[in-house]
Amino acid sequence: MAMVREARSAGIRGVLHCYTGSLALAEVALDAGWYLSFSGVVTFKKWDDDALLRMAPDARVLVETDAPYLAPVPHRGKRNEPAYASLTLARVAEARGVSAEALGDIVSANAVRFFGLASGDRRRIAARQPSLSQHPKRVAPPWPAPSTRSHPPPSTVS
User: Fold this and answer.
1) Percent of the chain beyond pLDDT 90?
2) Lowest mean pLDDT among 10-19, 66-75, 109-118, 129-138
3) pTM, whole model, 2 decimals?
4) Which residue, of 23, 37, 104, 106, has the fewest CB within 10 Å?
5) What pLDDT sits at residue 144?
């Protein structure tokens, strides 16, 4: 919490990325003008903190994929993709008691504002994402899958 307060004093804006933390830290961050961003974790069976999803005011809520990690249900355990943001958006909208379309407008406007994106074409996240039945067959990306190693193997020097 002290770091967020220090950042505020320095005029630094921020996002609590993939947020699943405490209400207390969320309050400090929101008070500092930061955003709360939620990922596919909020769709998991063990998620039980909808109050956290509701506490962020409309002007400070974001939705993210955290791709390639934390794919939302029903894709949990698989490689996450930007197209799945609509599933997270729908879950956050449900918890907040609004339509996915309305929340899509809100988070799109917030992303434009926070990240300084061009605002000429602010189509909603929900409108851009295909439904589950429209997802094209998954094709392997042209790059190798990320390694589970955090460091390269040690060299063998004799």
Assistant:
1) 60
2) 129-138
3) 0.73
4) 23
5) 52
Calculate the CA 157 to chain-centre distance: 44
**Omega prior to 74 cis, within 30 of 0:** yes
Three-state secondary structure readout of 41-81: HHHCCCCCCHHHHHHCCHHHEEECCCCCCCCCCCCCCCCCC
The maximal CA–CA distance of the chain, rounded, in angstroms, is 65
Task: Give the list of residues 6+ apart from residue 128 with CB closer than 8 angstroms, or none.
Answer: 86
**Cis ω on the peptide bond leading into residue 68 (within 30° of 0)?**
yes
Per the CB < 8 A criterion, the answer to whether 68 and 146 are in contact is: yes
Distance CA 47, CA 52 (A): 11
Residue 101 clears pLDDT 50, i.e. is over it = yes
C-alpha–C-alpha distance, residues 48 and 108, integer Å: 25
